[in-house]
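Look at one such:
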Amino acid sequence: MPHSSPALSLAQIDRFITDGYVRIDHAFPRELADAARSLLWADTGCNPDDPATWTKPVIRLNQYGQPPFRQAANTPALHAAFDQLVGPRRWLPRATLGTFPVRFPSPDDPGDAGWHIDVSFGMENPDFMSWRANVSSRDRALLMLFLFSDVEREDAPTRIRIGSHLDIARQLAPAGDAGLTLRELAANGFSETAHCPEVLATGQAGTVYLCHPFLVHAAQPHYGTTPRFMAQPPLAPAQPLSLRRPDGDYSPVEAAIRLALPTA
């Protein structure tokens, strides 16, 4: 059933279409972030009170489905926002929160700070550069960034290129349903989006950024003092996105793609 209390204003939805993201403060309680972070710290093998044990710039943890994570991913505010951006009954609830790239203060290059989009199908290929995305965003309705720690400018916030999803839609359109591989998309280092202004995904624990699946973003080194805990799960569609709806009932995710393609 659709949620009766909207999470996003009409202005926020309009900005999502043009900018490619919306930030929701207090999307889940800080208490859940604290409980989840305790579980994550245990799995890093590091001591939260001893920076001498933080010997790597990034440690990747994967697929946490314990209660704090499930509850954080399924708050009424987020479900309402999913309905607004993707459409009621057009998305699947999250049971886990995907990958956590835990970033530590370090002078070392983390090795994963290039611009990219998160591709969404073809994962059966062992070469991740052969994974694909297509213009109708097969198998991905949203990219989501869940902040489980307070993230300031020096704490390795994700870099976002505002409006870059429109450039990527135009790049994907000629490839049709087959789409392009990550290798093909990255051939020019995403230079076609270099004109886009940048914003940093900062915020307090409990903040969530809901992003268009084509939004170009990048990690960066951690120059602060407090490790950053963030999840970056996709929201999966319950039905394929469509750029040709007879009733014209386009979601904002679909409307953004259509905005980029005047002939859609």
